[in-house]
Amino acid sequence: MREYALVLLVTAAVTYLLTPAVRRVAVAARAMHAPRARDTHTQPTPLLGGLAMYGGMVAGLVVASRLAFLQDPFAAAGSRTAAGLLLAGGLIVVVGFIDDRWGLGAIGKLAGQVAAAAILVWSGQSLPWLPEPDGHVFLLPRDLSVTLTILLVVVTINAINFIDGLDGLAAGIVGVAALSFFVYSYVLIRTIGNTSQSLPAVAAALLAGMCLGFLPHNFYPARIFMGDVGAGLLGLLLAYGPISSTASLDPALLTNYTHGQALNRFPTLLPLLVPAAIFVVPYTDLMFAIIRRMRAGKPLMAADRQHLHHRLLNIGHSYRQSVLIMYLWAALFSVTVVSLSVVRTHLIVLAAATVIAVLVLLPVTMPVLRPWRSRGRRAAVRVPAHRGTVPQGASPLPAAPHGLRYRPAQPLPGNAMPLSGQPPAAGMPLSVQPPPAAMPLSGQPPPAAMPLSGQPPAAAMPLSGGPAAAVRPDPLPPPGDPRTGRP
To answer: What pTM, to 2 d.p., does this model score?
Structure first.
């Protein structure tokens, strides 16, 4: 355990110390991420955080290759193992740097991802077998093994890129997944007494250290983003763990080992269930995005604001709450599956614990499922006794212009009747407008400041700030010839 802890700490420390320097490099190179309509940040933020992650991975891998405890696993995996991981990561860094700085099309990025996966296959890491439901394994032909390995790497890289939408989200979820896979690999090593799983455990320690070292700089509010460089590296190493685990593990050790009853619970399925549980959050987001865009007739790489983290924000969660909720769901799935090989208890107990955890997380994720919230809403709602009445203390008038206030309209003196010939409604202020063609008795046209609508301009408002009081209309002239004005 101490060797793996040392690898994790060295990787985390180097990543953490390199990140400020990488941030200055990104600013100088103008590799900045400007805010877009679907983004959650409001200021341009430096990219290229994955460069610091790659530096931490190199440092941790060098330390691991020098430890005496890990010499035999590296030798058994072949001389190309460390070189293949460094070359594949280096290619991801180059492709990601180009995309973060100048932009790269989907075909170019896909070609780089396929080439990186091919380097892993060249180094000797590929899926040699798959488990069957009856406990046996299905040995893959060479061509099918290479195809599935490349497909797993490419899909995982893009899944991590899809969930990298909130500060600290991708680094935290991948960190949780890496720690879960490390626990599984370490327990497997201690149980079967075979160091063949040391290489997957080292890969998990490297990945966890990269995430832990970068997360303090990337958590909300982020000072730097990992960019495509970091998302590609995290996806590469996340896929590398299960691939190297099956490549270095003899399935006979799982099916024939019975000492201590530690591996007799789905022995051959666990190597597949663990990565499936680890990938459940990013893969679910990826699957929903593909279905959503295909139904809308959009390209698969088209961006939108319908990812899982965007939906949490739309529900009403803050940035930090959304990220932490995603952490909890990733931990739930990972811990549940890893517990199948670590915790020795009845399956019904594990199932009950999982159901309870889900029932607790659902109200946390969806506020509408919280019973106390529903009661509070019902208590806060007050229905007026009569429809159309104005609540007490509220004004029936619209808001007054800035700096002005309303003054109640004065009633008309005597028996004055408005031009409409109808008495005003009770409680309704009188608004009188002369007909457009009406000429004042003075015979002079209205002043220039008076608009044709008959309403006085804003400057003619009384000093009191309220609207002009209701005006008594002038009596109509006697009927006569409209041209001469004489009877």
So the answer is: 0.69
